[in-house]
Amino acid sequence: MTAAPPGTGPTTTPRARATTGEPLVPAAGRRRRAADAHPAPQPSEPAGSLPAVLALCVVAFLAARPPWWSFNYGAVLAMIAIVLTGRLPRLGKLDVVALLTGGWAAASLLWSSRTDLTGPAAYRYISVCVLFVACRHVVRGRRDLLLVGWTYLGGCAVVAVEVATGARSQGQVLLFAERYGVAGKEVNVTAYTLAVGVALALVLAAAGAHRRLLRLAPLALIVLLGYAVLLTGSRGAAIGVLLGLVAALATRIAPRLTAVGVAGLAAALIALVPFGLAPKGELLWLDGLYGRPTGDISGRLSIWPYALSTWSESPLAGSGAGVFIGTNPFEIGPHNLLLTVGNDLGLVGVALYFATMAGALVITARTGRAGLLTACAFVGVMLPICLTGQWETSLAFWLALALVTVLPGIWGPRRPPGIAPRHAHTRRRRPTTVAPTITVAGRTVTTGR
């Protein structure tokens, strides 16, 4: 005769308990929506090297309030951050494509007619690509993401206060027809930097979803940054902030429909606007915002056809990084991302550059509802800037793009469909056990619990 020790009998499955009449374990399906919106962090995820993270924090602050020499040391500080981790980067496909973009920009020196212009421009491309890889390599956990992200937002807050103070000194805190900026800084660049801060604030709100303060603080800062963007008078940045916030709200309501709509709109406008296929009436209406109509969107309607014609002279490889900006009769850049990269690096560079951006956003969007919201909001904020701005080698843009891809990593791998989240499992009742039994003459008899 053998007996099972009390309380150690085999646990029953929900199906078995249904047939034996024992109580079923409560389903946790009703909690899946909340878990998808704010996935639980992975406790085992190690934090990165603190000195390396602090080196990236320096880059983040310089990107938020860039002095004239920030590009000279962006790549250097990024390399220092990689060295301080004490390990070699494990390059993924996205990192390889980013480095190939920088390498192709450097290779444009071989066919450029103005190497004096191509050298500095190629270095800027290399800087942002190295920063992208360094950020993905160094930032490994929630602490790292919050440190780097909040350093950038801190710099943006300083800039926003400077802009608001300048407007207040002239008694025009609510007059948006004038343009206010930071002394010595181009006003559109200031506005674009603040717009990136809005997108990054949404990233930090998602990263700090486990604590109310960390979730609400960046959302509150959006109000200050948005107000400063309005004071700068930048149409592209203001429309981008509005579009990004609308995309974030729409993603909460209809995530899949919003994702398809944002992706389709972005692809259509990127392809149509530089080729002159966008409705001119709508463009001129946007030109009249802030009560400062120029008739050609500050020269953009004139330079876009010219930039398209110069790109057609060397469509595959381009004329070399920085050549168009330094030699065209308008003496300004194309103010369109596709035309800028196309003239600099040709179709090869366009494929590599846009593959890096699209790959980063797709990877993030496929990780869950919070990742999808972040990706859609980021596209919404940056789309008007990429269509009408000069922003291809911005430290701020590439830093934020890298942090967007890092965000899903702090949540761990995506949960398979039908599996309840960890915090739901912890609230389950303990599984019931089969009562101890003894075997007598080949028959099993229940002895009680």
Can you describe what's shown?
63% of the residues lie in helices and 2% in strands. It is built from 18 helices and two strands. Strands 1-2 form a two-stranded antiparallel sheet. The protein starts with 13 loop residues before the first helix and ends with a strand. The N terminus is likely disordered.
Sequence-ordered SSE layout with sheet pairings:
Blueprint: H1 14-20, H2 32-37, H3 50-64, H4 70-84, H5 93-107, H6 115-138, H7 142-169, H8 187-207, H9 212-232, H10 235-253, H11 255-272, H12 280-287, H13 300-313, H14 323-327, H15 337-365, H16 369-388, H17 395-406, H18 422-425, E1 437-440, E2 443-446
Antiparallel strand pairs: 1-2
Helix pairs in contact: 3-4, 3-7, 4-6, 5-6, 5-15, 6-17, 7-8, 7-9, 8-9, 8-10, 8-16, 8-17, 10-11, 10-16, 11-16, 13-15, 15-16, 15-17
Short key terms for the protein model shown above:
449 residues; 18 helices; two-stranded antiparallel sheet; single chain
Residues in helices, as a percent range: 55-70%
What percent strand?
under 5%
Strand order of the largest sheet: 1-2
Largest sheet: 2 strands, antiparallel
Query: How many strand segments?
Result: 2
Which word captures the global form? globular
Spans where pLDDT lies below 50 across 5 or more residues:
1-45, 412-416, 419-430
